[in-house]
Design brief:
Elements (H helix, E strand, L loop, with lengths): L5 H11 L14 E5 L6 E10 L2 E6 L4 E5 L4 E2 L7 E5 L5 E9 L5 E6 L5 E5 L3 E2 L2
Antiparallel strand pairs: 1-2, 1-5, 2-3, 3-4, 6-7, 6-10, 7-8, 8-9
Length: 128
């Protein structure tokens, strides 16, 4: 039997250590991205409670939903992240985050379609 190269062994060890993102975003107080009512769109929120594999998420817009913990992922928005945000007409438009304040909630975005720069908050935005 052939022995594995050092590089192959390292790759196998690294693969064995990979943990799904959902596995680390499940504790009370974790800021997460979670689909709302089974949609394919993720909204930011905080894990409010946990009971076994079920968590309750309080979304940044104030809505609350209970769901399986493995359906959420860690909040990972940062400058440069591509998101969609609600405009004053109630429609969703693609945008890029220009900056996020130290509070992690307030941010400046730039809309893709017309270049408008706006100060907003995470509760008015979502991602896929």
């Amino acid at each position: 039997m052939k022995s594995l190269s050092l590089a192959a062994k390292a790759m196998m060890m690294a693969a064995a250590c990979i943990v799904p993102a959902s596995a680390v975003a499940q504790e009370v107080g974790d800021w997460v991205l979670s689909p709302w009512r089974g949609s394919s769109v993720f909204y930011p929120g905080v894990v409010e409670s946990r009971s076994g594999s079920v968590i309750t998420v309080r979304f940044d817009d104030g809505d609350v939903e209970t769901r399986q913990a493995d359906t959420v992922v860690p909040f990972d928005w940062q400058a440069g992240s591509r998101i969609s945000c609600a405009w004053s007409d109630g429609k969703w438009y693609k945008a890029t985050i220009r900056s996020i304040a130290a509070d992690g909630y307030t941010m400046q975005i730039r809309y893709d379609d017309d270049g408008t720069v706006e100060n907003t908050n995470t509760g008015r935005c979502r991602t896929r």
